[in-house]
Amino acid sequence: MTLRDSAGRVTPVGGTHGQGATLSVARFHGLGNVLMLLPVLRALQQSGRRVELVTHAAWAPALRALSTGLHVHTERREGTLDLDQATSSVRPSEHRTDEFADLLGVPRRHWPILVRVPAAWAEPFHRSRGPVVFAPEAAHPSRRWPIAYARQVAALLQGRPLWLTGLSQEPMIPCDEDLRGRLSLQELFGSIAAASAVIGMDSAVVQIAMMLGVPVVAIFGGVDPRFRILPDARAVALVGRATCRPCNKNETCGGAYDCIRRIQASDVMEALERLPAVRHREIWER
């Protein structure tokens, strides 16, 4: 992998980038990826570097508040390194945080993942005691769980407060609070901080929950969960038994995605019941 700056110049992987200069890196593709980048940027800050993250304007205020000392901007400047370009054709082979570390010349380590959200973000969501937050969406078809299964989970959760989060309020899923399409990123963090558990696909919502120490049931398709969930996360990752899995984006199923379809609502409920005892990543094949 190589890094290019905003002028298209190649920067050698692992270069020092000039100890006195600001290190400016751009990541726009995928909020989950930006969150997996943050531990690497913190490590650079701790080494004495001045670090700048360039990303989407909608994410910038929350990222500034969560990362003290990290300069967050929305426009590339001369010399900004393009992490989108560097990873655009890379298939997962290790945790993305480690990939980012290698690109930026940061020694791999035990990556701390926990952060605290400002109390003001979570306070509006304390009206319900420990809801389950369910994010039934995923951007890529290989990460989408059948909506019929999502409705089954909602039915099985009757008696426990259920909040939905995501971008679109379609399709309809029975719940106590449908927050889809209504939250800023700060509010999304606040709602997840108030949760007793989170259910989601391989998505930013799952990354947020792990950052906050909220236990997670994560539903995976062809990507190996070890490349997206750090070992210390309070998470149960569900993967479907299939001979072609994990394909890690080298898909051979022609869009059938049997791996994720093999995971049933009953598997999610079993994992949800297990969560209070989970202290480290568990991967269940079903």
UniProtKB/TrEMBL annotation:
One of its GO terms (biological process) is lipopolysaccharide core region biosynthetic process. It comes from the Bacteria. Keywords: Glycosyltransferase, Transferase. InterPro entries: Glyco_trans_9, LPS_LOS_Heptosyltrfase. This is Heptosyltransferase. Pfam families: Glyco_transf_9. GO terms for molecular function: ADP-heptose-lipopolysaccharide heptosyltransferase activity. GO terms for cellular component: cytosol. It comes from Sorangium cellulosum (Polyangium cellulosum).
